[in-house]
Design goal:
heterodimer; A: about 190 residues; mainly alpha; Fumarate Reductase Iron-sulfur Protein, Chain B, domain 2; 2 domains; about 60% helix; globular; B: about 290 residues; alpha/beta; Glutathione S-transferase Yfyf (Class Pi), Chain A, domain 2; Rossmann fold; four-stranded parallel β-sheet; 8 strands
């Protein structure tokens, strides 16, 4: 693979996050502490290594990995990195790229559907509320049956408001979303 | 006294309502006025920083700009997730003039900053130092508490101040002031699965169960938290965990503000104690008025 391709991914990550992945010496502390590592196809230290390699094959493997979507953003890796490299921010940057390029793997359909539903509700109303979010998530994820018994129990506890609260200045919300949208993807 | 700016966050209206209720109850008791930011919007939570870096900064930026325009200098953000997004944005904007310029362009709003963002633990500690400590008339003697910080009250460079990320202790003074005791345990800063409650429930069940199991093994009567996501994963999802044949667990999960409110003798309904999935009302019997 050409060297320019290799530097492209690392350079993108550096510009997006300020992290120079070349500094990573593969100690593996990020992976050791990662609570989600058991569900990852590529663990955090391997993610850092693949960004270092950064050729087409490495980029393809990273951007279509389940791991970057399985990351919970708990920041344990970032907290413990002896080089202060912020792997969590690197994963954020890779996830955005994966989404932009339409490479999210089918196994992560529900996770992506949830994030998209969440942002759609916020774009329309300015705030998240449980009923629109759950309805939209269930429609788009196909995950129809889970948790149906929770709804009445939330309702009696006042945890499922029937009237959502909204932002008055909807025009401003619209402008912000439009300005942040890249192509047709958010 | 100047009012303290207040950012309720979206879960205040629904799934996390006990947090806001107990924050307001304590503020009233301490005589602190909370001024809600007018027309605030969602901070973007986990979804925004998963899909768009710009949006993850722009949404909190609008909140900061509104607060500043409304004359607020300090914002209480009781939800740990909102706190992390709002304070993270303050820190990033202070670090990068380019980012600040871009956000001005994206939102059309002016924010000079820096505003001070405080979390629920800092708020409680401030009230206690300001005299609330002397109003805790019904101490929870002998109650054993596992203080759970999770991710967003323990980690984040320049976001969490004055505490040890690996062994945080900022909740300890409040628990002690409430007459209860902090148990040593191993999962105070482990992740509960956060925003995956619906989209990756298996992970939340596994991670949250470990937390419940360790709290129980440490002899805790309850877990105390400051995050609505953690609360819903540990409290509401305890039913899911039990229904999958694990446990069964029966561990009440309280917000720090509820615990302190109980010790202050506030009513359980005022604190939202009756909104929990795992019965928390039983802890009421632990609150005993101090002998005269």
């Amino acid at each position: 693979m050409s060297k320019s391709a290799a530097s492209k991914l690392a350079e993108h990550v550096r510009r997006a996050t300020g992290v120079d992945v070349a500094e990573c010496y593969q100690c593996g502390k990020c992976t050791a502490g990662c609570p989600m590592a058991r569900w990852m196809d590529v663990v955090p230290s391997q993610i850092m290594r693949l960004v270092q390699i950064g050729d087409d094959e490495a980029a393809a493997r990273l951007l279509s990995s389940a791991a970057i979507w399985v990351c919970a953003g708990c920041l344990t890796c970032t907290q413990r990195c002896p080089k202060k490299l912020d792997p969590a921010a690197v994963i954020d940057a890779l996830r955005e790229l994966s989404y932009q390029q339409g490479k999210v793997p089918a196994s992560q359909r529900k996770v992506l559907a949830f994030h998209k539903a969440f942002l759609k509700v916020v774009e329309k109303a300015g705030r998240m509320s449980e009923i629109p979010l759950t309805a939209l998530y269930k429609m788009t994820s196909g995950d129809l049956v889970s948790d149906v018994t929770l709804a009445p129990r939330m309702l009696v506890r006042g945890k499922l408001p029937l009237v959502p609260k909204v932002v008055r200045n909807r025009r401003q919300m619209k402008r912000i979303f439009a300005a942040c949208r890249k192509g047709d993807r958010l | 006294m100047t009012p303290l700016g207040y950012y309720p966050g979206c879960s205040d209206h629904g799934s996390g309502r006990e947090l806001g209720m107990s924050v307001h109850a304590l503020a009233r008791l301490a005589g602190v006025e909370l001024k809600e930011i007018e027309d605030w919007n969602c901070c973007g939570a986990t979804a925004a920083h998963n899909l768009s870096h710009d949006l993850a900064v722009a949404l909190p930026y609008r909140v900061l700009a509104l607060a500043e325009a409304q004359g607020l200098a300090e914002i209480l953000t009781p939800c740990a997730a909102c706190f992390s997004r709002l304070k993270g944005t303050v820190v990033r904007l202070a670090r990068s003039a380019d980012l600040a310029a871009r956000m001005r362009q994206v939102t059309g709003l002016e924010y000079r900053g820096p505003l001070r963002i405080i979390n629920v633990v800092e708020f409680v500690n401030r009230l206690l130092a300001g005299g609330l400590k002397d109003k805790l008339a019904a101490p929870l003697a002998g109650l054993k508490v596992a203080t759970y910080y999770g991710c967003l009250l323990s980690r984040g460079e320049n976001i969490i101040e004055g505490d040890d990320a690996e062994n945080p202790a900022s909740m300890t003074p409040a628990v002690k002031a409430a007459g209860a005791q902090v148990v040593p345990w191993n999962f105070a800063t482990e992740c509960c699965g956060g925003g995956f409650s619906m989209s990756f429930t298996d992970a939340v069940v596994d991670l949250s169960e470990q937390i419940l199991a360790d709290a129980r093994a440490a002899g805790a009567d309850c877990i105390v938290t400051g995050c609505p996501m953690c609360h819903s994963n540990l409290d509401m999802r305890q039913l899911t965990i039990n229904s999958r044949g694990r446990g069964p667990y029966d561990v009440p999960v309280l917000y720090l503000t509820e615990l302190v409110g109980l010790a202050a003798g506030l009513g359980p309904k005022e604190l939202g104690l009756d909104c929990h999935f795992v019965d928390a009302m039983r802890l009421l019997s632990r609150a005993e008025p101090r002998p005269a």
